[in-house]
Amino acid sequence: MKPRYAELADQLIEAIGNGTFEVGAALPSELDLSAQFGVSRATVRSALEKVQELGLISRRKRAGIRVEASKPRVAYEQSLSSVEDLVQFAVVTERHVQSIGEVSASPTLAAQLGVETGSRWLRVELLRVDAAKPDEPICWTDVYLEPTVGAGIRRELRKSSGLICGMVEERFGRSVREVRQEIRAVGVPARLAKPLAVEADGHALEITRHYVDQHGAVFEVTVSVFPANRFTYALQLRRQG
């Protein structure tokens, strides 16, 4: 048996799909939906979150709840098992560089990246975008490069496509031996809400990747924030033997 919030979500999805609530129209408030369906506001809120994750509605302060689409949107799904899968992700998306500049790792940043406090890095801020939906970026990524590496490819960063680590390999011969990856749930930082076209503190995944060369040295670290309703991370586990 489904939880009550899931049942309510299904009812709202059906009502949007059959035109009871048309695209562009406003949905009743949480309080009104609570009274209409005889459930608590907490149940309504959970149901609306599920509907919003499908891209059917948007919720903004002072703007209310608005119907954005009649059919659920298919979220971007990324399945990674090798560096080649990362390359494929870069091929099917666009890199929109927002800024490039040098930074000194503060204690907080150093802890996040796993590097020494005060170490120098070239930071590239960029959006990954699906060309079919340019107004809904897949993610925001901060790329941190060793100063020498960054200086060598800086002029090319705004022009080229593909993975930055591929540019490093081509220029310096430093191939990626492995990628160390960490994933955690976060709220969308306030500074990223506008460029990602989402609400601040909304559900998101933060993926940190350390790119290790053939000598065991980390030359690139990326920190990406993926809004929850635009990205699915797929992983297959197989038993050996």
TrEMBL record:
Q: Which PROSITE patterns match?
A: HTH_GNTR (PS50949)
Q: Does the keyword Transcription apply?
A: yes
What Pfam family is a match for this entry? UTRA
Organism this protein belongs to: Paraburkholderia edwinii
Q: What is this protein called?
A: GntR family transcriptional regulator
Tell me which domain of life the UniProt entry assigns to the organism this sequence originates from. Bacteria
Q: Which UniProt keywords apply?
A: DNA-binding, Transcription, Transcription regulation
Q: Which residues form the signal peptide?
A: none
Note the InterPro entries from the entry: Bact_HTH_transcr_reg, Chorismate_lyase_/UTRA_dom_sf, Tscrpt_reg_HTH_GntR, UTRA, WH-like_DNA-bd_sf, WH_DNA-bd_sf
The family database entries (SUPFAM superfamilies) matched by this protein are listed as: Chorismate lyase-like, Winged helix' DNA-binding domain
Residues in domain HTH gntR-type? Answer: 2-70
Presence of the UniProt keyword Transcription in the record: yes
- PANTHER family, alphabetized: MANNOSYL-D-GLYCERATE TRANSPORT/METABOLISM SYSTEM REPRESSOR MNGR-RELATED, MANNOSYL-D-GLYCERATE TRANSPORT_METABOLISM SYSTEM REPRESSOR MNGR-RELATED
